[in-house]
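User: Can you write out an input/output pair for a complex, sequences first and structure second?

Assistant: Here is one pair. Inputs:
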Amino acid sequence: MSDDGDILGYLARGGKLSAPDNAPPRYRAELMRLMASFVDSELAGAAGFADCINLGPGVKERIAAARIVLEKLDHAERVLKIMGAFGANVARYQNVHPWAARIGRSDDIGVTRRAGDMRLNVFHYPIMGWTDSVVLNVLMGTATVIQLSDYAVMSYQPLAEAFQAILPREQRHAELGREGLDAIGARGPAAQKEIGDSVDYWFPKVAATFGGANSPRTELLRRFGVRRRTNADLLDEWRGRISVALGSSMRVWGGRA
Amino acid sequence: MAQFYPLTVTDIRRDTRDAVVVTLAPPADAAEAFRFIQGQYLTFRRRFDGEEMRRSYSICAGIDDGVLRVGVKRVDGGWFSTFVNEELKVGDTLEAMAPMGNFHVPLKPDAARRYLGFAGGSGITPMISLIRTIMAREPKSSFTLVYGNRSTSAIMFREELEDLKNLHLGRLNIVHILESEAGEIDLFSGRLDREKCDALFSRWIDVKGADLAFICGPEPMMLAVADALKAHGLPETAIKFELFSSPRTGRAKPKTEGAAAKSGGACAATIVIDGAAREVEVAAAGQSVLEAALANAIDAPYACKAGVCSTCRAKLVEGEVDMEANYALEDYEVERGYILTCQSYPRTAKIIVDYDQ
């Protein structure tokens, strides 16, 4: 017979769970939070990008945007199914918040979550035009890939496997973003200035999605075997990757934020 | 909401002194719901002393065997396993949910994969399902099972495994590790621990040549096997774990201090989380238990705040609340005192809410 203490020790030492039954209450709760945040972000992200499909300059770009929207919805559905195994009401959850709703462009809501809508706060801000959507996709897509990579070996195996399957597609979304950004950057200085302005707007908001350097929640998740790397470590990797991506499309950009 | 179906017990076979294998038949109109994937389990419910309890047991049959059966080993003090071992008889009905679980990988009929399986005690039950299915559906694949038990008499499915091995000579290998019996070879006696694994992996089992490993048993055994597999070169993503579906033991009620009832409509709520109890005031005017906890900087879990996701679930240990909406908790959970704290408003001057249960 096991009690929660044994299972927490087992998780801390690298043990894995494959079904909801053995998840201790606090582990369950943290896992649910994490899944809700992912599902809400994918649903809200898809809702935001859906409005951008027609802003794409050509059919190729519109296909890329439509594909990103489709696949983000699919990713939300996959993880929501796992939440359902833990007791969430899947049918009601899908419309529990207005995913397409956005706040004002210049509002500042910091990192505080809003009334049960667990989307990352970056997805509360509105996208202004095609270049803006591509910049957000590059910045946030790269962040998502780095964050998911850390979750893809987590102690709850069904979710780890879902993230392993999702990861290459999110990687492709970020690549599509980088291709789009290169195309915009090649148009000349005016387009590059537009990219720069969008980067200035989104960079700190995306950086904030990595969480604080000394987050007690991250430490708890690491003890649970849900996370491995620290927030600071992930953020560093993101800064590095972003400066490479932006350097290639703007040639001059060296990291203004 | 979970749906339960009445399954008829069509056979009970005593497997060891402490374990039975129960064969079940779903109702004709639910046959489709009980098609399972190898390695999945059934969750049963039954009332004991007026309280609904649930227990899960792995299905121990291959997906083509046309039969639904579970192996139930009696656990000391385990009410359901004792009931099944001592009272259940052919013709009785057991209520179960459709099969669930993720202890499998998709089958590839043309693949020639090398599987490793590690079972401790009744951890053999899902392995039976995996082995029978893989032998039938992946004719080019092989499976090596390492199976640890206290003694020969405790080995579940002993004869069946022997038969399977003979039927699939060269494809199915079985290594028994027995704790209390010194065999002719030291390698095969003792516990399935890290040392034993290291010895097996250096002399008997080629881990590097394996594609996937399945582990099911008690926690220390699973950790030891997984560590050894990784050390011998198997990638972490190739290791599948199934922790025993063991009932969690009850826990003593947490100590509370200064929990005097307050007057004036507000409620004194004791919030227990991460083993610590804190008292907070829940305002009379429409403040939920969750909001009161959050307002007092307690890191209570929540997500949707709409009674849908069940992240904020906790047990109401004392007092009464009104739950405004509940789209997630099932009746049996509510009966046992679980509440969605985002939807709960105190009805009594004092409540105790425990997020650790």
